[in-house]
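thread: overnight batch results

M.L. [08:02]
morning all. the overnight job finished for the chain we discussed friday. pasting input first so we're all looking at the same thing
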Amino acid sequence: MTNLLSSDTACENFNNKKDENWDAGDPLNYQVKQKPSLIRLLSWNKCNHSFRVPNFPRGTPLLNKANGEDGGDDIDNDRRCQLASSQARCSQGESDSGSCAFTGSDRFEIGTWEKRKLVSRDGKLELETEIFLASIDQRSERASGEGACTVLAVTIADWLHQNPEILPLRCQLDKLVREGSSEWRNLCESVVHMKEFLDQHFDLDTVLQEQVRPLTVIPEKSYVGFFELENMPNRLEFLKGAMSFDSIWEELGRRERTIEEEIYIVSWNDHFFVLKVEVNVIYIIDTLGERLFEGCNKAFILKFNIESKIFKAPRERRKREVNSEAITENHSTNAGEEDETSHRELVCQGKSTCKEFIKGFLAALPLRELQADIEKKIIGEAPLHHLLQIEFHHTAPCNRNSHIKRWS
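M.L. [08:03]
and the structure it wrote out:
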């Protein structure tokens, strides 16, 4: 509507100008008030206009495959040139700060999926699957969102709903991390939130009520369950009748056969991440790199499909502490590594590796430490209930009409 009004106003102004010089009684007397001088016409050549055509040989592809990590090099080169010129104009004061919408950090990067091997922190399991890495995570200086996992999960879930059947590129995932972290910092400035959340880790209800994104949770399609501890039946009697993590996963397995795509925000141990469930594949999207392996500082996407596998790690690997070298940089294995793979015991394959990843990689070590504390009678039932609980919040987009004021 704004564009239509502005265009009508522009047309009206143009007509008024025309009428000032137009005599309906004597149309031949219509004259232009001031003719441009020859000097002004010639001075046009001094303007910095460039109409050069790129000197590319005939048949040169638009997408340079040698630069697959950063995207189409030829296409992106034009964008970077425009970016550099706009930055130069901004620095010279020829344009106001609002006209320069891009910054040097906004590179157009597609990113790549890489087949890699992960080792659990306790050294007992090995996962082979595809991983997609961003350039930053929520703790990076470019994001400054150390406690922003809840807001980031909502931001990413909303993006997935608005862009069905696709995943973000690297530059898009970076942008989501920065935007979600910015929203989190805004919430931290609220006096009410300062008193209620001293550690600045907001719960999901608070973030949704603040309408950070037009997103809602469907309670009847959501699940709350608990991890089980081994050899401690008497200690967990208060959890009888509650859903276990395994039973939740069975319910997800039944639902995924009847739907094309579902987006969950998963909450466990004061951290939130996104679970994207499709018929043939499941994705975990997490903005805290440390969840992947110690020392990782990049948000990541894990793909779990028919090619994903989890093995029991060799005994010699179990004896040594797992460190940041748990992820191999090589995409292919050599003959020696293939021979080692053939002797490993396969635990599971396919989408079920996502379930085992959550249990054996994310939760195994904290649960084992919790069990040790319980045996030493260091911990009570109240925190035990909290530490064992895992929640799957089924998300859906809100009616955007109810969020017009928030997003206008």
